[in-house]
Design brief:
The two termini are about 30 Å apart. α2 (about 70-80) runs antiparallel to α3 and α5 packs parallel to α6. The protein folds into two domains: about 5-105 and about 355-360, Enolase-like, N-terminal domain (Enolase-like, domain 1, 2-Layer Sandwich); about 105-340, TIM Barrel (Alpha-Beta Barrel), CATH 3.20.20. It is globular and about 60 Å long. It is α/β, with parallel strands linked by helices and about 375 residues long. α7 (about 190-200) links the parallel β6 (about 180) and β7. Helices cover about 35% and strands about 20% of the residues. The strands form two sheets. Strands 4, 5, 6, 7, 8, 9, 10, 11 and 12 form a nine-stranded mixed beta sheet that branches. A three-stranded antiparallel beta sheet has the order 1-2-3.
Length: about 375
């Protein structure tokens, strides 16, 4: 089997109601979608944070065996292609391999430890509303009513906003709901510690990305200062970028994103490195139906660490923000049922792409 063509689709989903994290306001959601076509009639789909140049695809991908994932990865990397753009190609290759072998990707990864995963609702952004606290409380209660047992809120807007609103949401959802916060790198070390000391009073599951994603020394300092798990690394690209963060135990939880770090091929190296250093892995997910499906396969194949009788939950990040490329791109959308999501069982990624939806959001 040989690859005969690669098609790339730069897509943008325009958000009808903008929302903000601690660093920026989102008005549109860009994604790079990749389709790889083989001479066996098998097509694979992938997603990345960018798209490789046509020349790199022609010299390093077209004409090759889709099972040669390492060769293709290194070839694209040698041409200067960013890991976020390689991700889309790599995920599409794994989709093809699964379809060719008539197996879901999690089987290719060594088998599934679970056939469903609990999800945490990612939302609770700051929006342009008269009363932020009331809006956040109502949204959080809605997630509880929908069956979610975990959720994550955006912080990083300054101590007054963060301390007041995190406390309000915790009171609204009660003590039994798992509750994490995410600053999206909006703080410096001192501010993260000062604000974090107040936030941890609300029984937090973790404090995500308080500072810049590459500040290893800063994360070590924060982790020592705060009595809460510290998580991050979703923006890092390539397994070598994770080396110091993992080896120096700067984070309790690393959150590689399969569409940023370099795809499934590179993610496996990151997970192995984390396992060797006793660092927990929970993949980040904030993309289309392709990223959601790929992340579910990674979670299915992720062993509990440690293998406790009551292990730390293997949680899926379930993006609740507006994005039709997540909710409509797959012909059979991946949805939660009372806060739990089933792992796809069909070959490859286990989803079929709705081309009409894809074409609607492709940019010229």
């Amino acid at each position: 089997m040989k690859i005969i063509d690669v098609k790339t689709y730069p897509t943008i989903y325009p958000v009808s109601q903008p929302f903000s994290n601690g660093m920026r306001t989102t008005r549109q959601r860009p994604f790079g979608i990749v389709e790889i076509i083989t001479d066996a009639g098998i097509t694979g789909w992938g997603e990345g944070t960018g798209l490789p140049a046509r020349r790199a695809l022609e010299t390093q991908v077209i004409g090759r065996d889709p099972f040669h994932t390492e060769v293709i990865w290194e070839g694209l990397h040698s041409q200067g292609v960013d890991a976020g753009a390689i991700s889309g190609v790599d995920i599409a290759l794994w989709d093809i391999m699964g379809k060719a072998l008539k197996q879901p990707i999690h089987t290719l990864l060594g088998g599934a430890f679970r056939d469903k995963v609990p999800a945490y609702a990612t939302g609770l952004f700051r929006r342009d509303v008269p009363d932020h606290t009331a809006a956040l409380v109502a949204e959080a209660k809605g997630y509880v009513d929908a069956g979610f047992q975990a959720m994550k809120m955006k912080v990083g807007f300054g101590p007054d906003y963060d301390i007041k609103n995190v406390a309000a949401v915790r009171r609204a959802i009660g003590d039994d709901i798992l509750f994490a916060v995410d600053a999206n790198c909006a703080y410096d070390r001192g501010s993260a510690i000062a604000v974090g000391q107040r936030l941890v009073e609300n029984n937090l599951l973790w404090f995500e990305e308080p500072i810049s994603s590459d500040d290893v020394e800063g994360y070590i300092e924060i982790r020592r200062a705060l009595k809460v798990r510290i998580s991050g690394a979703e923006q890092l690209r390539g397994h070598r970028a994770f080396r110091r963060m993992v080896q120096e135990r700067a984070l309790d939880i690393i959150q590689p994103d399969v569409c940023i770090c370099g795809g499934i091929t590179e993610y496996r190296k990151i997970e192995a490195m984390a396992s060797a250093n006793h660092v927990r892995v929970l993949p980040h997910m904030f993309g289309t139906a392709i990223r959601l499906a790929a992340t579910l396969h990674l979670l299915a194949a992720l062993p509990d660490s440690p293998r406790a009788h009551e292990p730390f939950p293997t949680l899926l990040e379930y993006d609740m923000s507006e994005n039709a490329l997540r909710t409509e791109l797959a012909k059979e959308p991946i949805t939660h049922k009372h806060g739990v999501v089933a792992i796809p069982q069909a070959p490859g990624l286990g989803i079929e792409i709705n081309r009409a939806v894809l074409e609607k959001y492709v940019q010229a």
